[in-house]
């Protein structure tokens, strides 16, 4: 390869020194260069043409980015031969590096991905691929907070380093892996990486400095401050005794920053300040201040010191210095929204600035800045590929959302301006079910594409392979390391393939701009005026309850007891629902009063008319509640049949968020009635007969016409086939939570289906009825809600689900679902049909007293967009056999009379 690895390293240092590049117009390119490039083009020497452009950018870094980005446009053909492909690979890696130093981390990642995929697809054997593609690519992922992906790339880099016996590279990778593990809070693995790195490093001073800097950071995060201080102090002394140069000065600067962070944690602000100033001095002396990310971070830390000292105005000065380093503000101090990009350090500085502004009493400006922090965080979240990474990141931003809501609520109280109420709804939406919203939109967009593109087939195969590996990970009792590695590789391939799909089909690109900064005002206008949307936000300090009615925010209340409410609901659900009905039966008055206490905390101040429709948008542990069974009056009534349940006055359904509800509403209703039901009357393992399921199937079969599959006919394959064809899909079987991760699971005759096995299908039913235990239950994610089967079906495009929050009573579930279908057949909307089915249970005067308890009749809830579904009534025996019998009788009668006439005719003859 023409460009040696040493040349490339020199180029990186040189570009780092010059920092952010400035775009130059094409006409500034010298005439001699134009002639050289034209001559090479005439000779069809593509590889030399590419290297000439790279060489020019090496000597003219201020023009490197715009000039290099025009290379593909200016080239006359694609690379064909190996030297040309190697040159093109070098071009892509240069573009990745230049984009990083221009501040565009997302674009930089894209170019490194292109470079790596180009390297793999063309099977290039290029020295240094790890150092100039893999390593900076992983570092970019850590800047975004995508530590899971960073670790995957770092492991690839480590494998390469070990294969090439490049100990220096291995040490750097171990250090970076330690940073990733530390950022995930996995301190054990982080320390193990440092130890492994030190074994590779031997006694090389620079490498030990690098590792000890990170080790001190780990101890600092673990709050082992004395140990952290000792490690970093020794590290600084080791470096200060050496003569610094352009390269080694960077590590000393990093050590000063780490030392400052440790002293900041110890509240030794003056000493921390000293270290931060030393770091800035190193930056100015050796890099002329052009180590911009380090400079920006240092300014932010200095601002935090001033904030801790209640010197808010000075803190803001340093936070503005950070923003100036990022190129986001000028002398006017205005922040253009279009310039906001995804970066953890940008999220932090906007959040810290909002705290300082709030301290000064500038609540409006504080709210604006914290929303800028959420915007930057949202741009990061959108670029993350792995679902679990997205969910983790979304949960981490919820604290900021809570602070933003608190500021907006205070402004609303003071000004009474409706725009602050809209802002609160906007922020709640930004912190709720965003990953699910992306999944719903992606499924809908894929369903609209009628194409046989092989990329979609490859995607389906990868998703199947990923599901298989997740199943293997869940069920394996032995060593799962190999399965984990295979799983990571498959997810990596899927991410690359999905990017290819979005390039080929731009309509699949999800809108990145909603919600945020008042954009919820438009979705509010799309809500039905007659329905009350009740959205909850349960933070670490406060609970917020928002009522939306008539396309406006009608009421917002703040409850300053979030920890107590969480504990109360947890104990209530655990005691009275998840542990069976005994506590409710044995202590009816205690249950009555506890239920009313929760009702008053959640809905007590809201006023509704009789039979108003409520659409509940729960948050965190509130998602484990069924509101139908909440007691609305605090005066205990001994007769359970007469208890004042909320269902007696209001009709309820549920939604994951306003945006998911609107997207589910956009699903085109299937007009052709096609009911499919799967009924497992025997448990798979012990073949125990479940009579209630058989009765449920029998009851529904008398009401609804369609396909009814039982036991051997109701396998996993039958389930997926039914999913693709039915407009209403009924599943009556066992459901449970599997493994340590509490993975929602459906049991069929031949096998299980896990939540992660549900992926986008060709079509999706309007309604899925999960007449099974805990199908709306699952592991809790702080910002996404309950990761349940109900949620999984929503993600792949279903209009809505009826699902169970706890272990359903077979008799009650059978009767209520049958009545619900009968109501839907009469033209009632789904939630109304379920509402009346539950009321019908309560109004039956012949039940035993305990059967009026909500444990029996209230586990099933409807989650999704409410609408009517098309069903075909079952044919009665007379309808089924009456017409054929009549025709046969008529035919027989006709034949009889014909024969009789013929006999008479013969006699006359």
From TrEMBL:
Matches recorded under Gene3D superfamilies: Tetratricopeptide repeat domain
Q: Which PANTHER family match?
A: RAPSYN-RELATED, TETRATRICOPEPTIDE REPEAT PROTEIN 28
Q: Which SUPFAM superfamilies match?
A: TPR-like
Which parts of the sequence belong to the CHAT domain? 595-864
Query: Which SMART domains does this entry report, sorted A to Z?
Result: TPR
Superkingdom of origin organism: Bacteria
Q: Does the keyword section mention Transmembrane?
A: yes
- The reply to whether NAD figures as a keyword in the UniProt entry is no
Q: Which UniProt keywords apply?
A: Membrane, Transmembrane, Transmembrane helix
**InterPro entries attached to this UniProt entry:** CHAT_dom (IPR024983), TPR-like_helical_dom_sf (IPR011990), TPR_rpt (IPR019734)
Membrane-spanning ranges: 881-899
Concerning Pfam families, the annotation shows: CHAT
This one is known as Tetratricopeptide domain protein
Q: Which residue stretches, if any, does this entry annotate as coiled coil?
A: none
């Amino acid at each position: 390869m023409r460009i040696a690895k040493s040349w490339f390293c020199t180029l990186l240092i040189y570009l780092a020194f010059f920092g952010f590049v400035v775009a130059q117009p094409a006409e500034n390119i010298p005439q001699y260069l134009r002639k050289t490039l034209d001559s090479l083009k005439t000779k069809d020497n593509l590889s030399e043409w590419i290297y000439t452009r790279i060489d020019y950018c090496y000597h003219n870094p201020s023009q490197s980015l715009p000039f290099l980005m025009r290379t593909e446009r200016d080239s006359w053909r694609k690379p064909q031969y190996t030297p040309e492909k190697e040159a093109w690979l070098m071009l892509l890696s240069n573009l990745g590096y230049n984009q990083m130093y221009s501040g565009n981390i997302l674009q930089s990642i894209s170019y490194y991905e292109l470079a790596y995929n180009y390297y793999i697809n063309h099977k290039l054997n290029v020295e240094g691929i790890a150092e100039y593609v893999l390593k900076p690519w992983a570092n970019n992922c850590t800047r975004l907070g995508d530590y899971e992906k960073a670790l995957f790339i770092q492991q690839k880099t480590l494998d390469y380093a070990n294969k090439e016996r490049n100990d220096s590279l291995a040490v750097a990778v171990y250090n970076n892996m330690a940073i990733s593990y530390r950022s995930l809070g996995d301190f054990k693995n982080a320390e193990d990486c440092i130890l492994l790195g030190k074994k590779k490093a031997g006694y090389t001073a620079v490498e030990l400095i690098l590792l000890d800097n990170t080790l001190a950071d780990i101890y600092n995060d673990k709050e082992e401050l004395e140990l952290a201080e000792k490690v970093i102090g020794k590290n600084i002394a080791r470096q200060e005794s050496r003569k610094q140069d352009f390269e080694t000065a960077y590590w000393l600067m990093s050590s000063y920053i780490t030392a400052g962070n440790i002293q900041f944690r110890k509240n030794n602000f003056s000493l921390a300040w000293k270290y931060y100033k030393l770091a800035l001095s190193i930056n100015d002396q050796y890099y002329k201040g052009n180590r911009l990310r380090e400079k920006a971070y240092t300014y932010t830390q200095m601002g935090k010191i001033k904030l801790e000292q209640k010197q808010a105005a000075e803190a803001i000065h340093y936070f503005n210095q950070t923003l100036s380093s990022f190129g986001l503000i000028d002398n006017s101090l205005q922040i253009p929204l279009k310039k906001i990009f995804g970066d953890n350090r940008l999220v932090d500085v906007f959040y810290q600035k909002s705290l300082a502004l709030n301290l000064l009493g500038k609540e409006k400006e504080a709210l604006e800045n914290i929303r800028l922090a959420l915007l930057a965080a949202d741009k990061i979240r959108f670029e993350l590929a792995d679902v679990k990474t997205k969910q983790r990141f979304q949960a981490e931003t919820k604290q900021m959302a809570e602070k933003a809501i608190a500021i907006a609520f205070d402004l609303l109280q003071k000004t009474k301006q409706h725009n602050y109420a809209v802002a609160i709804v906007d922020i709640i939406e930004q912190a709720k079910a965003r990953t699910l919203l992306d999944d719903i939109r992606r499924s809908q967009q894929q369903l609209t594409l009628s194409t046989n593109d092989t990329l979609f087939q490859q995607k389906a195969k990868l998703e199947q392979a990923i599901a298989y590996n997740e199943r293997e990970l869940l069920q394996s009792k032995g060593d799962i390391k190999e399965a984990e590695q295979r799983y990571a590789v498959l997810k990596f391939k899927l991410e690359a393939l999905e990017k290819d799909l979005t390039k080929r089909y731009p309509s699949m690109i999800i809108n990145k701009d909603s919600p945020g900064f008042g954009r919820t005002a438009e979705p509010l206008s799309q809500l039905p005026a007659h329905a009350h949307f009740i959205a909850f936000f349960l933070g670490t300090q406060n609970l917020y309850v928002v009522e939306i009615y008539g396309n406006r925010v009608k009421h917002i209340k703040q409850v300053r007891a979030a920890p107590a409410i969480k504990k109360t609901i947890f104990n209530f659900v655990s005691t009275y629902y998840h542990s069976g009905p005994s506590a409710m039966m044995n202590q009816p008055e205690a249950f009555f009063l506890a239920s009313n206490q929760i009702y008053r905390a959640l809905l007590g101040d809201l006023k509704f008319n009789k039979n108003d429709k409520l659409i509940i948008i729960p948050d965190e542990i509130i998602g484990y509640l069924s509101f139908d069974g909440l007691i609305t009056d605090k005066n205990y009534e001994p007769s359970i049949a007469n208890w004042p349940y909320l269902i007696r006055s209001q009709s309820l359904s549920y939604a994951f968020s306003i945006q998911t509800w609107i997207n589910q509403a956009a699903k085109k209703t299937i007009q052709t009635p096609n009911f499919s039901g799967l009924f497992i009357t025997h448990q798979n393992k012990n073949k125990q007969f479940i009579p209630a399921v058989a009765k449920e199937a029998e009851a529904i079969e008398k009401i609804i016409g369609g396909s009814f599959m039982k036991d051997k006919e109701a396998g996993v394959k039958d389930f997926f086939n039914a999913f693709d064809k039915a407009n209403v899909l009924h599943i009556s079987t066992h459901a449970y939570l599997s493994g340590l991760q509490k993975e929602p699971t459906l049991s069929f005759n031949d096998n299980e289906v896990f939540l992660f096995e549900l992926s986008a299908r060709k079509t999706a039913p309007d309604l899925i009825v999960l007449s099974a235990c805990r199908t709306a239950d699952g592991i809790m994610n702080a910002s996404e809600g309950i990761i349940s089967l109900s949620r999984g079906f929503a993600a792949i495009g279903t209009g809505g689900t009826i699902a169970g929050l706890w272990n359903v009573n077979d008799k009650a579930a059978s009767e209520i679902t049958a009545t619900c279908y009968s109501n839907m057949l009469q033209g009632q909307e789904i939630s109304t049909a379920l509402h009346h089915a539950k009321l019908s249970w309560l109004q039956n005067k012949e039940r035993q007293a305990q059967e009026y308890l909500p444990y029996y009749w209230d586990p099933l809830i409807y989650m999704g967009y409410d609408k009517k579904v098309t069903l075909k009534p079952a044919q009665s025996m007379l309808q089924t056999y009456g017409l054929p019998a009549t025709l046969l009788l008529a035919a027989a009668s006709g034949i009889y009379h014909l024969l009789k006439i013929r006999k008479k005719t013969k006699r006359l003859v």
